[in-house]
């Protein structure tokens, strides 16, 4: 199997890392279902960009926290584009908090999107993938899940650690059906989420601080993550599963003992 005829769904695909993944998969020749919740203008602009470049794309509005909406999204994607062979679980939310500022409702929403959203999407695509004995599932985790030391990320990290556990366990369950399941853990990537709430001066200071924490001496771009995802989603990656690929420029601020 090659890239021709591949159909991908990218959750949270309208902006940032998700949009970069959509562009790269489309450039390889895959038809792309762009999932979004609250940014229809950005999603439509991306769809138009892909189509103008000769690709195929469709808009898929759904909240991944809602299992019925996810099932309907997959059915819509297959009606518009064809059988889904690639799923990228990129949709995610973050609510910075410490033990003192912990908010139960914010954590519940993070888990509903970051964790339950992965479960809902995998369950929605796996039946078709099993029937065709082929599938590529890539989950977007975070290097926070494996121990970076940024304050305020504890509860977000906990949800992403769950994603990594699900990645390995789903790989075990689905591997004999020709379905690979892997995860990519981004480091600090320049996106709208990274800029949120920061002045230009504060953001520039943040970039400098994060750059100094990496071995390669720079911060990440969405395209860095898209490149890793595209490899794991590709037809040549059939012997790679249950893996976690950290793409963070060699971060040096991990929590550790000894």
Written account of the structure:
It is a single chain. The protein is of the alpha/beta class and 258 residues long. It has one domain (7-190, 225-244): Rossmann fold (3-Layer(aba) Sandwich), CATH 3.40.50.720. The protein contains eight helices and seven strands; from the N terminus they run E-H-E-H-E-H-E-H-E-H-E-H-H-H-E. The protein has a seven-stranded parallel beta sheet, sandwiched between helices. Helix 1 (16-28) packs across helix 8 (222-233). The longest helix is centred in the middle third of the chain and has 29 residues, at 104-132. It is globular, with a radius of gyration of 18 Å. The model has no long low-confidence stretch (mean pLDDT 95).
In short, what is this structure?
With 258 residues, the chain is α/β, with parallel strands linked by helices. It is 46% helix and 14% strand.
Write the layout of secondary structure elements.
Elements: E1 7-10, H1 16-28, E2 31-36, H2 40-52, E3 57-61, H3 67-80, E4 86-89, H4 104-132, E5 135-140, H5 154-174, E6 179-186, H6 192-195, H7 200-211, H8 222-233, E7 244-247
Parallel strand pairs: 1-2, 1-4, 2-3, 4-5, 5-6, 6-7
Average pLDDT figure: 95
Largest sheet: 7 strands, parallel
Rg, Å, rounded? 18 Å
What count of structural domains? Answer: 1
- Model regions low in confidence, pLDDT < 50 over at least 5 residues: none
Distance between the termini: 46 Å
Helix content: 40-55%
CATH architecture, please? Answer: 3-Layer(aba) Sandwich
Secondary structural class? alpha/beta
Compute the number of strand runs. 7
Widest sheet: strand ordering? 3-2-1-4-5-6-7
- SSE pattern, N- to C-terminal: EHEHEHEHEHEHHHE
User: Do you know the CATH topology?
Assistant: Rossmann fold
Treating each run of at least 4 consecutive H or I residues as one helix, how many helices? 8
**Which CATH class?**
Alpha Beta
Strand content: 5-15%
Shape type: globular
For CATH, the homologous superfamily is named as NAD(P)-binding Rossmann-like Domain
């Amino acid at each position: 199997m090659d890239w021709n005829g591949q159909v991908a769904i990218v959750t949270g695909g309208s902006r940032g890392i998700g949009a970069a993944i959509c562009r790269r998969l489309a450039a390889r020749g895959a038809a792309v279902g762009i999932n979004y919740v609250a940014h229809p203008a950005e999603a439509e602009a991306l769809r138009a960009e892909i189509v103008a470049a000769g690709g195929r794309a469709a808009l898929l509005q759904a909240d991944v926290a809602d299992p019925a909406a996810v099932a309907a999204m997959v059915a819509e994607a297959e009606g518009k584009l064809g059988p889904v062979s690639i799923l990228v679980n990129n949709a995610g939310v973050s609510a910075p908090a410490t033990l003192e500022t912990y908010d139960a409702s914010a954590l519940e929403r993070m888990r509903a999107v970051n964790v339950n959203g992965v479960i809902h999407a995998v369950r929605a695509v796996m039946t078709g993938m099993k029937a065709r004995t082929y599938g590529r599932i890539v989950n977007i985790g975070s290097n926070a899940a494996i121990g970076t030391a940024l304050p305020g990320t504890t509860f977000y990290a906990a949800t992403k650690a769950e994603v990594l556990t699900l990645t390995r366990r789903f790989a075990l369950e689905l591997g004999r059906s020709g379905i690979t399941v892997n995860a990519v853990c981004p480091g600090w990537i320049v996106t709208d989420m990274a800029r949120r709430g920061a002045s230009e001066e504060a953001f520039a200071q943040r970039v400098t601080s994060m750059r100094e924490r990496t071995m390669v001496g720079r911060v990440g771009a969405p395209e860095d993550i898209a490149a890793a995802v595209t490899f794991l989603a590709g037809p040549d990656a059939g012997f790679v599963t249950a893996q976690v690929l950290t793409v963070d420029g060699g971060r040096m601020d991990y929590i550790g003992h000894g």
